[in-house]
Every structure is written in structure tokens, then in C-alpha cells.
């Protein structure tokens, strides 16, 4: 099968496009014919060697954790899916080696859910990792409740734009930080936008004089450091971007595959409460260009790699 691989740590320049063996299918997995996969910052961070101390890597590596496609074969123990099912998944295993930037991926069933009918394959490929990150942070780390006010830092990005919609669906009021050019986009998602930079705290206080109930930080740094002073009494803080959140009394969130959570996201999409902004698409052989665009960090929504 055709796939993207890398044989050593490095920049997007180490990516190669070519033939690799089709993956073997374990008893608890399904073989997915990939229609689309999305790029996440963790892809190029693993590729650069940043996670070498915490994850085993087996070279050559096929990058990518997000996928949307069609089940082509099921393992002997699988009852959750059948051949022909349209699925999406966050296909993260305990080691890095066989990812989703390929024509086929052998995906453990615990990493998959049925694709929502409301989303095409490209949009569905952009949902799993980012959507699960937002969903798990909001529902489990922050335990957001109806009527609460939530502040989302970097609200126009891949995770942020989904977090805004999920928090709104949970019945919360959402304030989102973003550059001026993305303010109308955020209003369309249901958030009240505020600009980054000097004076951020004052701008948030103008909208929430008594403080916000929860802050979801997706960028770290100065935005995270100012967040505790914006919380109401009993307010909660979580970050996916900066471990310094622990010293500030908050929680650090690292996403995990979860079929039930993926299914909840699919239901929100089918109810018209959740959409995925696809910023750009690239064919599989141009995955390096997709990574480079993602690494710039200024993209609104998700960058997707398509597989013919």
C-alpha cells in the first residue's frame, strides 16, 4: 500500500512517500480503508523526537493518529463494526509506528466510532483527536455545567473551535480569545470573542465582571498565567498546552481514545450542534506540506490529508 513514512527523527523533510506492507489485522481491530486523515501538532512533535522519552517508536514510522474511512475487514473478535461501516477514529496505540497517513490502517476498536452522517470524510477526519481533547477537557477535567461561563484561549484553532461548540452544546456561555480576524468566525460558533495581547484580562473582566467559572487553555504561556485571576470563586482551570497549569492549581489534560466520547461527538454533529472547519486539504503525497502549514500555528480549523 502507499503510505507516508519516516526512518529517522527530523523535520517534515524526512517524510517519504512510497510502498509499505499492508498492516496485519489483530483479533480486536478492523482494517480501515483510509479516506482522510488530519494533521495535529503532536504528529510533527513526535517526528522531531520530542516524545522519545515517553513513547516507544518503531522505525520506519507511519505518522498520523486521526482517520476517517470505511471498514474493509474485521478481526475475529470484533462485534462492534462490520465490513462497509463508515468510521472515524483517534488511532493511538501504546507505541508509535503504524499511523493513519496510509491507504490502510489496522485500528483497534477501542479507538473508533461510527462516522456521523452529517460530516463528510474530510471533516470527520478532523474531529477525533481535537474533538476528544476538547470534550474530555470540558466534561471531565472542568466538569462544565449549564449556565456557567467558560473562557477558551485560542478559540479559533482546531481544538478551540470545537471546544466553543461543545461548551455551547453543554449549555455554557463561552468567551473565546482570538485574533481580530477570527472574531466573526467565533461569533458564528456561539462565542463572545476577545483579542489576545496586552489588556486581555481587562477585556475578559468587562464581559464577566464576577469572573468565569472555567478556563480551558489551549496555548499556554501568558494566556495561562493570567487565567487564575479571571476565575470566579471555585472556578476551575485546565490546559492541554502547558504543564505549568499544575503549579497554578489546575489540571493538565492529555487526550485518550474513547469510543463513548467519540460517539457523543458524532451525535452532536448529527444534531447540527458541531461542525468541523477544514482549513486546507492536501493529497497524501504532500503530507510534508500539510505538516509545515500546521507547524506555523496560525491556521483556523483543521488541516486534512486525503487518500484516493
What labels describe this entry?
single chain, 308 residues, alpha/beta, Quinone Oxidoreductase, Chain A, domain 1, 2 domains, 7-stranded mixed β-sheet, 6-stranded parallel β-sheet, 17 strands, globular
Description:
GO terms for molecular function: oxidoreductase activity. Residues 10-305 form the Enoyl reductase (ER) domain. InterPro entries: ADH-like_N, Chloroplast_QOR, ER, GroES-like_sf, NAD(P)-bd_dom_sf. Pfam families: ADH_N (PF08240), ADH_zinc_N_2 (PF13602). With 308 residues, the chain is α/β, with parallel strands linked by helices. The protein folds into 2 domains: 2-127 and 276-306, Medium-chain alcohol dehydrogenases, catalytic domain (Quinone Oxidoreductase, Chain A, domain 1, Alpha-Beta Complex); 130-252, NAD(P)-binding Rossmann-like Domain (Rossmann fold, 3-Layer(aba) Sandwich), CATH 3.40.50. It contains 9 helices and 17 strands. Helix 5 links the parallel strand 11 and strand 12. Helix 3 (128-141) crosses helix 4. The mean pLDDT is 97.
Give the overall average pLDDT.
Answer: 97
Number of helices: 9
Radius of gyration: 19 Å
- List unreliable stretches of 5+ residues: none
Q: Give the helix proportion (percent range).
A: 25-40%
Structural class: alpha/beta
Annotate the secondary structure layout.
Layout: E1 2-5, E2 16-19, E3 29-39, H1 41-47, E4 56-62, E5 66-74, E6 86-90, E7 95-98, E8 104-108, E9 112-114, H2 121-125, H3 128-141, E10 149-152, H4 158-169, E11 173-178, H5 183-189, E12 191-195, H6 200-207, E13 212-217, H7 222-226, E14 231-239, E15 251-252, H8 259-270, E16 278-283, H9 287-296, E17 302-306
Helix pairs in contact: 3-4
Amino acid at each position: 500500500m502507499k503510505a507516508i513514512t519516516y526512518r529517522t527523527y527530523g523535520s517534515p523533510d524526512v517524510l517519504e512517500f512510497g510502498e509499505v506492507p499492508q498492516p496485519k489485522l489483530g483479533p480486536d481491530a478492523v482494517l480501515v480503508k483510509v479516506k482522510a486523515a488530519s494533521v495535529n501538532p503532536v504528529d510533527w512533535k513526535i517526528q522531531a523526537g520530542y516524545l522519545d522519552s515517553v513513547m516507544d517508536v518503531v522505525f520506519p514510522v507511519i505518522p498520523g493518529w486521526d482517520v476517517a474511512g470505511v471498514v474493509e475487514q474485521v478481526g475475529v473478535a470484533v462485534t462492534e463494526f462490520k465490513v462497509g461501516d463508515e468510521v472515524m477514529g483517534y488511532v493511538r496505540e501504546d507505541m508509535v509506528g503504524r499511523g493513519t497517513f496510509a491507504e490502510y490502517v489496522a485500528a483497534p476498536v477501542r479507538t473508533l466510532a461510527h462516522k456521523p452522517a452529517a460530516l463528510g470524510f474530510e471533516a470527520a477526519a478532523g474531529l477525533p483527536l481535537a474533538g476528544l481533547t476538547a470534550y474530555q477537557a470540558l466534561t471531565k477535567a472542568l466538569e462544565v455545567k449549564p449556565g456557567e461561563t467558560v473562557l477558551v484561549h485560542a478559540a479559533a484553532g482546531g481544538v478551540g473551535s470545537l471546544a466553543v461548540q461543545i461548551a455551547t452544546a453543554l449549555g455554557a456561555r463561552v468567551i473565546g480569545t482570538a485574533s481580530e480576524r477570527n472574531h466573526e468566525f467565533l461569533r458564528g460558533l456561539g462565542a463572545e470573542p476577545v483579542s489576545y495581547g496586552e489588556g486581555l484580562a481587562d477585556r475578559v473582566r468587562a464581559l464577566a465582571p464576577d469572573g468565569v467559572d472555567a478556563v480551558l487553555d489551549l496555548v499556554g504561556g501568558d494566556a495561562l498565567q493570567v487565567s487564575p485571576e479571571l476565575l470566579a470563586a471555585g472556578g476551575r482551570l485546565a490546559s492541554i498546552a502547558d504543564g505549568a497549569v499544575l503549579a497554578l492549581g489546575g489540571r493538565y489534560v492529555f487526550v485518550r481514545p474513547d469510543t463513548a466520547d467519540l460517539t457523543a461527538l458524532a451525535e452532536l454533529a448529527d444534531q447540527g450542534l458541531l461542525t468541523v472547519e477544514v482549513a486546507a486539504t492536501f493529497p497524501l503525497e504532500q503530507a510534508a506540506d500539510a505538516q509545515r502549514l500546521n507547524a506555523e500555528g496560525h491556521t483556523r480549523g483543521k488541516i486534512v490529508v486525503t487518500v484516493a
